[in-house]
Amino acid sequence: MTRPIRRRAAVTLSLCAVLVLAACGSSSTRGRMANPRPLLPENYQAAGIPSQFGDTDPIDWTEHDIRPSAYPVHGIDASRYQGDIDFATARANGVNFAWLKVTEGGDHLDPGFEINAPRARAAGVPVGGYHFYYFCRTPAEQARWFIKNVPRVAGDLPPMLDMEWNHQSRTCNRRPDAETVRDEIRQYAAIVTSHYGTPPVIYVTPDFYAENELGKLAGYEFWLRSVAAHPSERYPDERWTFWQYSGTGVAKGVKGNVDLNAFAGSVESWVGWLTGRRQQ
After folding, report:
1. C-alpha atoms less than 13 angstroms from C-alpha of 180 in its C-beta half-sphere
2. Are the C-beta atoms of 133 and 14 separated by less than 8 Å?
3. Whole-number Cα distances in Å, 32 to 59, 232, 248
4. Of residues 60, 77, 156, 259, which has the active-site annotation?
5. pLDDT computed for residue 113 by the predictor
6. Are 236 and 209 in contact (CB under 8 A)?
7. CB of 95 closer than 8 Å to CB of 50
8. Positions of the chain with pLDDT under 70
9. What DSSP state is assigned to residue 17?
């Protein structure tokens, strides 16, 4: 995800359209290796990286039991740093969904959402907005700020809540205890759910998840960051819906690096998930 201070869509998606998207693409890789062995683009697929994507800092996923290429549905999350995104090209090359940063804290706005969300909708890419949580504002303030800046649009993806420590913030060093963190997530999610009619997906990093015992947070779907191993290795026994497997990905239609993500199920389950979770 985007870092502090930094980082929606009527889409009709038939089963046929999703099948076309899935056929056009899966996803790539990300990586850090103790002894870097850069992969050539022609070797991405053999290494477990779907060929429609690339990576500027790849790992060799063949060293792991489960690779990103095992999943048929992939997408991106982005912020203003990706600039203007060509979603028609992205869609034709394997991007099946996109979450774009909209808000942070109680007063920060990312201009990329206003530019790129309409483009995603026009290209037929399901799109949603996300909020980067700031621990020096109340959950209610932040939920209201998100709602103020993200219109409720039929067909949009559910909102997403990005929960990480604000380690780069120059204005907020607050680190609440685990119980308080879980309670603030519940408060924020309740307000956002009431407004959009669907609960937010919660994005977390391994350290944040562990330190705040988020396995105790029942009733929410997780988006897990794990850029050097399958989520089952970083989050034992946790269920997940989305896996962010690269922070240095390359996708056609997107300038520079972009986060790459996989949906947990089949194309058919993706269609079912969209049907049940898109805004009405």
Report:
1. 7
2. no
3. 6, 18, 10
4. 77
5. 98
6. no
7. no
8. 2-42
9. H
CB 110 within 8 A of CB 101: yes
Q: What is the largest CA-CA distance in the chain?
A: 49
Q: Which residues contact residue 239 at a Cβ distance below 8 angstroms, ignoring those fewer than 6 apart? A: 221, 222
Chain centroid to Cα 140, Å, comes to 23
- Tally Cβ neighbours within 10 Å of residue 84: 12
pLDDT of residue 16: 35
Report which of 126, 129, 56 is spatially closest to residue 91, judged by C-alpha positions.
Answer: 126
User: Tell me, what's the pLDDT at 158?
Assistant: 98
Quick check: 263 and 75 in contact, CB under 8 A? yes
Q: Which position has the token pair 């009733």?
A: 219
- Selecting among 55, 60, 110, 164, the annotated active-site residue is 164
Residue 164 falls in the annotated catalytic set: yes
Report helix, strand and coil shares of the chain as percent, to nearest 5: 35, 20, 45
| Token pair in block for residue 147 | 């709602």
pLDDT in tens, 45-72: 777 878 899 999 988 998 888 999 999 9
- Look at residues 109, 113, 186 and name the one whose alpha carbon lies nearest to residue 156: 113
pLDDT score, position 117: 98
Angle (CA) 228 86 150, round 5°? 80
7/1 Cα distance (integer angstroms): 8
